[in-house]
Design brief:
521 residues, mainly alpha, Fumarase C, Chain B, domain 1, Fumarase C, Chain A, domain 2, 20 helices
């Protein structure tokens, strides 16, 4: 999960896109090429779509209207207008726009799905999307408005507008009319779409999958951070290491649990404070003793979610699909977001659990009755100083907000299109709110890191168990102290919080840890 920055080029075949390649293009600007065999497959598929139209066969979205208008025949001379009107009428999104990396992900996924060659669209659509990615033309797409059922109709319609020289796009840091952005980038816009292409652009789970896949990648990083930061908290609270013995965890057998326990052994190896405090208690509270069980369950959840995302990155999700081998046109429901809605709700739930147990570790460090000898609220002069009292309040606020957001979106449904589309996934909502949960969780982990460093300084001052940390613990502690000094007396805390949050979000702490402990995963 550490390779996207190093990937410079991704070749689209419709069948081989990995999560790392997806992130490389969406976030880090890797270039995109179309595989020759993919172009050939699209040409064959397009020829079949034109044959069906010429023969006036009843085929959804090719010779008929959409949704509840599927029974309405559309004359051949109006089929182009039908596809173009679909984009114009469906661009009904609202709210703040998606981030550029999220939109780039949508464009990449739509191109990858279409180049499989069973969607009946012209290769020029995919070639335009690839050129937009490579030249940095990014449609402005509002976040709200998708039911996640007949595809992400509203978001992807906003994307389609820019292909037609309409809508809005960001180019070289400026938001411009779509046609102007395309012209400046030297990409000719289309005058019209042709039959089936409106559906080819809008039918699909690309919005939810793009947002969710990026959140998934970042949650993998958050899970590693949770192990790293909790190892410092273990030191601050003189945790008992017997709970992390390998045989304890292999006895249960869960892969994530075994990995987290191994991480904690690696991260705490050589820590003088922990070596000298062993035997101080028979066992610790759950927030310490059960880190492998909780963090490990999150790891296993992420592995499951990734297995589903890996499939969807290469899925054909529009409707109908055209199969050249027997010229079949099959109407179905591959656009339905349920296969992603459930995993992305699970993603939010798993991420929320990381914040919840992190907040409990913060509470143990600031609570004089639970901290195994640390000062109340980690102050050196309590009473006149409040110390880290309100750090825990803020962490508790975000952990509690996560619990509200973790309510599954997919358990709700609301019928649309005159009850033809009567059960929807709300998968895009699930993906979006998982991102909010992730942001809260990263903040809580930053609060825990800040608190653990204060607690370690106080523990060292007492000197009962010595002052030495593990090599990786010392490196991370020193890295924090370069930006944030020990809080001897109350001061404005927001600059300290911002500094540590930036460290947590940048990835620099994980890079530092891996340099010292290469086996840390």
């Amino acid at each position: 999960m550490n390779g996207p920055k190093a990937i410079r080029k991704v070749i689209l075949t419709g069948q081989s896109l990995s999560l790392e390649e997806f992130v490389a293009v969406a976030r880090f600007g890797a270039s995109v090429e179309l595989a020759p065999q993919a172009r050939e497959a699209m040409e064959r598929s397009r020829a079949l779509a034109e044959k069906i139209a010429d023969e006036k066969r009843a085929a959804y979205g090719i010779t008929t209207g959409f949704g509840d208008f599927a029974s309405v025949a559309v004359p051949e001379e109006l089929s182009n207008k039908l596809s173009t009107n679909l984009i114009l009428s469906h661009c009904t999104g609202t709210g703040e726009p998606y981030r550029e990396e999220q939109v780039r992900g949508m464009m990449l996924l739509r191109a990858n799905a279409l180049c499989v060659g069973i969607s009946g669209v012209r290769p020029v659509l995919v070639e335009m999307l690839i050129e937009m990615l490579n030249k940095g033309v990014t449609p402005v797409i509002p976040q709200k408005g998708s039911l996640g059922a007949s595809g992400d109709l509203a978001p992807l319609s906003h994307m389609g507008l820019v292909l037609l020289g309409r809508g809005e796009a960001v180019y070289q840091g400026r938001k411009l009319p779509g046609g102007e952005a395309m012209a400046l980038a030297g990409i000719p816009a289309l005058d019209t779409l042709v039959c089936k292409e409106g559906l080819g652009i809008t039918n699909g789970t690309c919005a939810m999958t793009s947002v969710g896949a990026l959140n998934l990648y970042d949650t993998f990083q958050a899970a590693q951070l949770a192990d790293l930061i909790s190892s410092l908290t273990l030191t601050a609270l003189t945790g008992q290491l017997s709970a992390f013995q390998e045989r304890m965890h292999t006895a249960r057998g869960h892969i994530g649990q075994i990995q987290v326990a191994k991480n904690l052994r690696l991260l705490t190896d050589g820590c003088e404070i922990l070596e000298r405090c062993q035997g101080a208690r028979i066992q610790d509270a759950y927030a310490l003793r059960c880190i492998p069980q909780v963090h490990g369950a999150v790891r296993d959840a992420l592995a499951f979610i990734k297995s589903k995302v890996d499939i969807e990155l290469n899925a054909v999700t529009d409707n109908p699909l055209l199969f050249c081998e027997d010229e079949a046109v099959i109407s179905g429901g591959n656009f339905h977001g349920e296969p992603m809605a459930l995993p992305f709700d699970f993603l939010g739930i798993a991420c929320s659990e990381m914040a919840s147990i992190s907040e409990r570790r913060i509470e143990r460090m600031v609570n004089g009755a639970l901290s195994n000898g640390l000062t109340r609220f980690l102050t050196t002069d309590g009473g006149i100083n409040s110390g880290f009292m309100i750090v825990q309040y803020s962490a508790a606020s975000m952990a509690s907000e996560n619990k509200v957001l973790a309510h599954p979106a997919c358990v709700d449904s609301i019928p649309s299109s005159a009850n033809q589309e009567d059960f929807v996934s709300m998968g895009t909502t699930a993906a979006r709110k998982a991102g909010t949960i992730l942001e809260n969780t990263l903040s809580v982990l930053a609060f825990e890191l800040l608190t653990a460093c204060q607690a370690i300084d106080i523990r060292r001052r007492f000197g009962i168990y010595g002052v030495g940390l593990s090599p990786v613990g010392e490196a991370v502690f020193a890295h924090v102290r370069e930006k944030v000094a020990f809080m001897e007396e109350d001061r404005e805390m927001w600059p300290d919080i911002q500094a540590v949050e930036a460290m947590v979000r940048s990835g620099e702490l994980l890079e530092l840890a891996r340099e010292i402990v290469p086996d840390f995963q």
